[in-house]
Fold these 3 entries.
Entry 1:
Amino acid sequence: MTRALTILRRRLVGSVFVLLIVVIGSFLLLEAAPGDAVDAYIVSTGGDAGMIELLRHRWGLDQSELTRLANYLWALLHFDLGQSVTFSRPIRDVILERLPTTLLLMGSATALSFGLGSALGIYAGAAPGSLRDRFLSIGSLALYAVPGFWLGLVLIVFFAVDLRWLPIGGIETIASAKTGLARAADIATHLVLPVSALGFIYLALYLRMMRAGMAEAWRQDFVLAARARGLPRRRIVLAHVARNALLPLVTMLGLQSAQMLGGSVVIESVFAVPGLGRLAQEAVAGRDTPLLLGIILVSAVLVIVINLLVDLTYAFLDPRVGAGEASA
Amino acid sequence: MSEFTISRRGLLAGSALLLASTALPTIGFAQTPKKGGRLVLAADSEPRNLNPAIVASNGVFFISSKIVETLAEASFDGKDGLEPRLALSWEGAADGLSVTFKLRDGVKWHDGKPFTSADVAFSALQIWKPLQNLGRTVFKDLEAVDTPDEHTAIFKFVKPTPSQLIRNALPALSSVVPQHLYELGKIEDNPANNAPVGTGPFKFAEYKAGQYYRLTRNGAYWGKDEPYLDEIVYQVLPDRTSAASALEAEEIQLAAFSAVPLADLDRISKVPGLKVITKGYEGLTYQLVVEINHRRKELADVKVRQAIAHAIDKDFVVKTIFLGYAATATGPVPKNDPQFYTADVPTYAFDVAKANALLDEAGYKRADDGKRFALKLLPAPYFNETKQFGDYLRQALAAVGIDAEIVNNDSAAHIKAVYTDHAFDLAVGPPVFRGDPAISTTILVQSGIPDGVPFSNQGGYKNAELDALIVKASETLDTAARTDLYKEFQKKVAADLPLINVAEWSFISVARDTVGNIANNPRWAVSNWADTYLES
């Protein structure tokens, strides 16, 4: 347990600096982009010089960059994410509204790609070089090579337009007044296609990694020893070969969760899912600096937390991890 | 389908066809409207402010025009091209110093309070004039609004203001909001800006960000038996391909504002149960324009500008980029405008040889590599068609020895580059013609506009004669004389080419056959839909 606590403490201290660098870096990057929130806004309205000046003043864009950054950091210190200019609402509310959707989509897709990917990986890796191994490896690579939006569109055309089994998009039926289990079932039906589109693409990653790890493990002495002891084949595959191949997959899980946050922009747009990815895209297009910073901050915290969990899982799976840190 | 072919070919093809098309809706949809039902349609953007009195833009009207009404709406066959809404009549004084509106009796706000002339006076003086994007220009000389009784509002101007301009501005600029909800606190921060309260046929019910807007029937609406629909739901579909799929899957019944891309229309028109409609946007015409930076010495020469005009094959642009859903342009007023358009202007036929000759004449001979000079070309990113035309223009210019380099930006960056930084030589823009040249058209060529004003002359063009003409037209009260001045304006612009008008286009709706009373006015998508109905 002390091992876990040490890892936790070290990571938390480091995280604060990471977050600070992320915030300042993103702020400067967005400032460097030509045009500000008012420029983005008047695209759809037009307006005379007086109106534009009025807007810049109201949205605080007539202040210098440094003042705005200082104000933002000061507010952040008080856990205030500020006000979104594109939504004219507190950023905390805007993000909290979308976060559950993104977590649900991302979590389900990760679970799908990790669960199915490693299961198929074990199936393929149990007999490296066999026909089923080749078939699965090539099939998963083909899926990996497919662009996400295209897979999404094909799924829509097939399952929603032609067969009409599943809804085309959105997160739940509009104004259906469903509650409880009925609502959960409704959301689940809406998630089938986006989760599949997102999950199937990353499936190959886990499958290939699991398979490669197992192919490697088969050649190890301890596997030979296990076979010599006369253990059942099923037990050798699961407890000896697969367990040893699992560690890199956990690392991958941590890395990929960060990627999923970004990768879901496309899927969220195609399936009209109101998640963080789309929000981030709108924030960039609208030059809504505080909103984008809020999203980046929340995502960064998520990534940090997920990686922390991964490290703790790692320590649990492999007793050697963190032992050095704890004794230091 | 015959309707569709007629209007496709004749789209924007002049006032004669406009009149013909007005007759069609009554023939096409002669059924008795049914009551009830929920209309679900695609929305591709979520405006940050839903108050049409502050933000007069199509994105806002698309949703808010069902909730908040204007004094009058555009009409195919009404007097002055208008149909009464909150105002029953409008009468401009001969001296141009006042306009008298008689208001509708017995109208109630959605919260039950009565609508009176005080609401009109408040909206005009506190919102349209000081805050509204377009009203700040049109109502700049509005000094007071007298309300002798609850149903009369008299607009008083400090300077003579043409009543034709005020009339033409009514459909877009005159949304009336309730004084009793807006008189306390800052108007810009009012919660009703995001949950509007009006007098319209539908009430604002709810908004789920990123998902949908829902409007419900106003049972106390002044229109007899109206509205027919129980609910209107705008489903937010950010991906343009999904609107077509959603229509096919019968999840939505309508996609307006060309939510279905032009390239998909041919396929979707063959799907049983769906119809493609090109009408109902006559009052929302967009113009494809080449904006010119006259600070470049080559472009300051009218011969070079004429050469560029001759280098563009407008028919090709209409056929290939707009797939026929557009019309070629002759000048700064679109062909489908019933009041101001004149065809009697200098024209520039597609003629590469002539363009080359003009450039030679101007003294820009081809160098050894065949190039005369290089330019920076910034196509506006707001529409697929503006980007595609940018690519076409680059090729067209290459044919006459002008080497154009395309600079792609996103919307915010494009606005800043062109209208604030003037960091362009040529730009492709889509200005909107709003029914009167004084609202947003003359500003495209007038000089003396401060930096940073979007969709205005930021190319440094200065023509004293044209400036004088614009001022004179803005002060001319007689409708016929004023109209003639704008015809003169079109001639001068076409002759001197401060910018080059290439094409005019509008939007397309795709709907299920069950949706009735579609496209029955020239601003249908942004009108109140009180008579829209669903056959079960």
Entry 2:
Amino acid sequence: MNAILEATGVTMQFGGLTALNDVSFGLSEGEIIGLIGPNGAGKTTLFNCLTGLYAPTAGQVGLRGITLPVDPARVTQQGVARTFQNIRLFPSMTAEENVLVGRHVRMKQNPLSSLLHGPGFRRSEADAAEHTAKLLAFVGLTKFSDELARNLPYGDQRRLEIARALATEPSVLLLDEPTAGMNAQETEATRQLIFAIRDLGISVVVIEHDTKFIFTLCDRVLVLVQGELLVEGTPDEVRGDPRVVEAYLGAPPDEVDAQIHAAEETR
Amino acid sequence: MTTTLEKAPAPTPEPRGRLAPVAPYASALQIAGGALTLIGALLPWATFVLNEGPYPEKATLEFFTAPLAVTGFRLHLVLFGIAAIVLSLVTVPARGRMLQGLGWGVVAVTLANTLYLVAEGGGLGTITAADGAVAFGPIVALVGGALIVLGGSARRREDKPVWAWRSNRYVEWAILLVTYVLLLLLVAAVLTSGGQGTAANVYSGAVFLSFLGAVGGLLAALQASGLLTWIAAVSERHRLFSVVVLLFVALALPLTQAGTEYWMTVAANIGVYAATAIGLNIVVGLAGLLDLGYVAFLGIGAFVAANLSGAAAAQFDIEVPFPLVMVISAVVAGTFGAVVGSPTLRVRGDYLAIVTLAFGEIFVRSSQNNIGGFTGGSNAIPGIPPVSAFGNDFNDELIIGSVELPRGALYYVLIVLIVAAVMLVFGNLKNSRLGRAWIAIREDEDAARAMGIRTGPVKILAFMIGATIAGFAGAFFAHKTGTVSYESFKFLESVTLLAAVILGGMGTIPGAVLGASILFVLPEKLREFADYRLLLFGIALILIMRFRPQGLVPDSHRRAELAPDSGVPPTPGTAAKAAAS
């Protein structure tokens, strides 16, 4: 298997607390991986290590065999984009401008041409605008193009965040709970969107609590429990694995879904 | 009657509820208000001649002695009163709102004069009855204004009319041209109203405030009528034409009544601060980095220019041409900007404010102590030669054909061009990759980094460009004033600049210029209030921030953010869902 994104022995300690312990996995080209685990298992911490927001205490992350730097901006430049668990759009920018910011790393403008708005500048702006329009159409937000991000309906904000991440032309997209707070229809729409993204040739890692969503979406599922990678396998393997059931919930397999939903609702 | 006044301030959307009982009498109230305003304007305003002589526009005038000699604020009140009566008889869209604007104008004009008379005259006797003389003008006018507001508010809520009228290009150009010329005359009138505020005219502050109230009321009424919005839309359609004409109109100020040496100096100073405020607007308005020591860069530019053009350079027989001086000053200031900007990589928010505050203090203290001998310490650096071109000093008067430009007009022209250039820089940068990166950092720094923005260099660039602009303005400032002293760059100046940016509207060009104009004209105009100057200043700031938090000329985005009634409301329940996730 030829991994495009590869984490080897990633360990993250905050003071005495070990948030991640020796986590290793590989993401193949065009693959969708699901990352599940109870709250506090270290899923988002792993994302932060993958995107250079945190410097892992030990271990490293490589993209196409090259070790990624500990700098979110440069990681994005090299082709790993992400969304956030609690939506982090630029609220007082329009949907279009949000996506344009995502184009930042793929645009060339020197300060002088920005200052004078010369022909080179205009070409790059027109280029970015075209790309942005395409992406907004891709996620179905063309009608909200000039609307402030803060005014968008919740589900559309999530979609806009994905469009913004896609604007950086990533080869790997990390989605942190993309369907949190969504109803069944919106969740389904998101599933289709992620498939469409995969069809663009982008590999995807998804964190999600909704196991039904994960098991029907992903090619492979990783289960993270207390900072350790407990099980790795296809959805069927993971679903049936007694260790997952025990560690995750301590309940029989057929009740997993029900209990997770119950837990979600009380949360 | 005071209770009416308290009830009247209802610019809130639905005045109908509380004001329902008076709604049927709206027209009657307005006519009564208009009539009272008229009568008030013609009654005497003071019972005796003040110590400094008759109050402006002969406020002690008796109604019957000289009914036609109505000028100044009384003329404004007469016109407002007539307008109110006409508006209540003629059906025009949104007249309720227009009347509210007029009414508030009447109240503002009356209050400005009343308070001054009461304070100067030593009590309410000045405006009511004393020593057998009666003068109920202010009170009657105040009641009239309140009634107009009340009547206007009691009308059914009307939407602001939208004017869709279009014409061919040349007609619209002509309309715009007329509008801009009127704007120029208005600016000149506001600038010169009340006179120079020296011993010769002790009433200038009150006259100015009163005039400002009248202008405010008029603009509010015009805004309510939808005219201003329409003009804005037309000028947006002819953007290039507008920019060019506005530039020429700005350059034409010396030809108006403001064309004296004194007003040219005031206008040039405003220009310096406007340019500086636009620079600060990059740092604060776009990149969201709170800078409390920004005026130091203006100072650095000024001191560098002072050394290059003044005695220090003359010692070594160096004569640096003015354009080069400006560039060097700007570069030096920009370099310091980068130095001050570098801590921003590590500190955010409040801590950054403290760092910049400290830098500002370091600058003031060092220049006060003449560190390195560059600043002249408390002696300042005097004798900086004026800018000259073609053998003509910029502070001389200039005669071209039959047109005689006052002293200082050339400096004014130069600063207008500088401000225009700075505006161009700001506008172009704002709509570029760099500008978007700044705004993204302001909105959410972590998300910006996750989008591949190298926040460090981008933030330093904001500081650097802002400082460069200030340095540029500083070089002009040094040559204009001829003397550069550390006292011009104290903390208060930084605060005032920051207030100008926030007051005018963060992230916009007209906002920064308007803010700078207001904040640097007010102190000039309110001199006679000496001790209360800063108090009035502060009250004005508080009022504007309370009633218009988005600033006077808000960014289109920020307007949507802070204005109560715009934008698509988020679908119900999303907030709750977001909180739950």
Entry 3:
Amino acid sequence: MRSKRVIRRLGDWTPHDRRVRLDRLNAPVLSDAMAITPSDSSPAPPADWLTPDLDANIATLRDTLQKASDVVFRPLVVLGGKRACIVYVDGLSDMELVDAHVLESLIQAHSPAPDTPHPLAITHVEAAAEQVTTAGVKPVRTFSAAVESIIVELQVVLFLEGTETAIALNAGGGENRAISEPDAEAVVRGPREGFNESLRTSITLLRRRIRTPDLAIETMQLGTYTQTKVALCYIEGIADSEIVNEVRTRLKRIDTDSIIDTGYIEELIEDNPFSPFPQIQNTERPDVVASMLVEGRVAILADGSPFALIAPINFWGALQAAEDYYERFPIVNLIRWLRYLFMFIALYLPSLYVAITTFHQEMLPTKLLLSIAAAREVTPLPAIAECLLMEITFEALREAGIRLPKAVGSAISIVGALVIGQAAVEAGIVSAPMVIVVAITGIASFVIPRYSFTIAIRILRFGMIILGGTIGLFGIIAFTLAVIVHLASLRSIGVPYLMPASPLTKKNMRDVITRPPHWAMRWRPIETSKPNRQRQSNAMAPAQRMPRGKRRM
Amino acid sequence: MWRRFATCVSIVASSLMCTGCWDSTEIDRLSIVTMTGVDVAEDGQSVLGSVQIARASELGTTGGGSPATSTGSAKAYLVESAEGPTEVEVMAKIRSSLPRKLFMGHRRVIVIGEDYARRGVGQLLDEIVRNPQSRLRTYVVVAFHEQAQKMLQVPSDLNRLPSDAVVELEQSGSVVAMDARRFAKQLTSHSDPYAMGIAMFTNEMSEASPEALTLENIAVFQRDKLVDWLQGEAAKGFLWISRDLRDDSETVTLPDNRGKVSVRLGSVRTSHHVKIVRGQPELNINLHAIFDINQNASRLNLLQPNQMDVVRKALQAKIQSQIASAMQQLQRDQADPLGVSNELFKYNPGLWRRLEPRWREVYAAMPIHYNIDINIRNAGLMSSSL
């Protein structure tokens, strides 16, 4: 209880204040003392200013960073005789770049002769800055700023003898995972790039797809210890500013010690944390993010996570895969309807089986009933227990399949197929129709393209089974109604979750029921793109594309 | 929040513990009734009821291995009988002799013994309509000169359950498909119900079971009592006007020894109207049928319209005589399964009220006009016969 209250008080501070407190990184952040006396952003105390004495500066810095053994202090002589020192975090700077553009140019450069009229460089610092051939250069005047540059920004900081200003140089680099195709969202046709853990790379991938100055990328740092860079992306002029403001407010409200993955952010900003349905989409695909941005939605990327968050989303998007928009529309329509069908199967099939075989036997065709009756003749458990047993086993198998090392992964499928599929039926413990039902349900849950949505279906399926097995079809219908009521009240960043269907907006319903051809998708979703609804002109429709006379051909 | 969650969890958990929830019944605790039969017991008063129960354990795969595919064996079902004052009483008696609950939801056929049918089926229909488990799509058949109980014991050569065989026969399109709903509807209207007769025949060639079931003859009721059977030509004639005929083929012998032509029924439309002539009702029966040539075993060239006319006329004469013989027998029996009285009641209620007390006599003496229109198509799909 106690810690909760503290966090709430911390939340009242502006993020700027929090960043200033960097010099106290090693102090317990959530201690009450800190919370009560927020440090102010007024001029830093004199002790924080850099001095002209290089040795003193380095000594102070060494003292501050004494625990961080991966910080490298490299003394050198530059500008023809001046002592200097560069400080950086080992392994996180591009050393080739530092060698070629910082060290080499500085060591070889000569000190500006005092009498030479120098047009630009006035101080040594500026002279040094001029010699350095990297892109980003920033002056640093305080110790805390220097520490932030080194530790948070991962810059190389150059201290010079005789000046009170150090230079922070962008030499970002270090090892990153290569850009690869996301496993969970593979496509047959479409781009195969995926985000990686570096925010810079991810934003590059995004910018490569949306080359407009209207693409807004607002960065902020979240997590008092991790200082994770988080980027809020949207397209100015399409995105509804109310939504953008709401997302920004919710992001700014986050005050926690760490943001390890965007999953943290999702849980901290979603509308209804207790709903099984995800209200924020996550994706590894830059093309998905780009298409969402041009629909007026907002994306959140974070350093250290390849998953971008997209909000607001609706229920129907869960059944739309990225590839739907890359393949030609007739087959996509059929596949989309297949997904709808299998979503219902994934949700209802086991519960319907249990309900019908224990309550409503008259609903089955006679021959089917007799087959099921024959199979159930030897099984010891009631249908509901059998169904729960099999479903839970299946969930365990799935979980085991994810966690197991790849080398042993095939063992799971053998155990699953042989032991549960065959042996259980042959031993007469589980009836064969139940195995079929569970298998079809399992396949159906993989048909849903969005993994986080499948989780909701999986959770609800168990509720359905229990209600279907205890009060029959009545229970299934009652639970369905409850789910529909819940969905209708659910919101994603304030936007109704069932949006084009409820409240009904006919223009956008087409992309829910079908996938219209691209030339017919004239309007952006109304819920996200209020300022700018028209996606394209109508001139690409077939009637406009071909002159009347030629259409006979 | 936590309290609410805990409450929900405990409710769900305790509902899992409930084993006997309301009317939940596992399939393996049911005895699935596929066919029932009713007869008059030997004492002439009480009801002899029989049920045919599917033996699920014999019907599918049980614990591996291929499913039992043997047909024609009596192992796939068992027949239980009991006597009692009413049908419900009989069911209760059978129930008490079985370890499992009788499940009537899948009863597909009700066989009525001839003696029972002659005594009246009203109380049986009442039970069928009132029983919530009972399907109204259950087919009703009458055992032809036989006890229903016997019919339940006859195995089918092709189907594992005899009830499946009867259902398939009923759905074949060449007999009247009379189910309980239609039967009750006929009974509650002004007309009389009818049903297919079910009969045993001996099949010498079959090794598994020499006896088999077939649907033939039409049982004609007067109100709820069986009065007569339409057989042979008359049964066929009634089928023509009953609107149930979908699948049929006819062979006509042409006059003057010119051979035979077989035709296949394409479609048939039939209607009947009551026309009032000088205050008296007369019945018009219209039939329009389209046939394809099935086989030409004659010396005619069917591409010639005048030669085709010969076939048409012969076919027309044959069908008309079949219908006429059916109508004559129905008039003799004073039974009205066609619904002529309904027709009169709907379109001429004043006259119906006057005629109702002596309707049966009026019906028996009613003049009937036939208007049979036959069309034979597609003779030209082939050139003249070889």
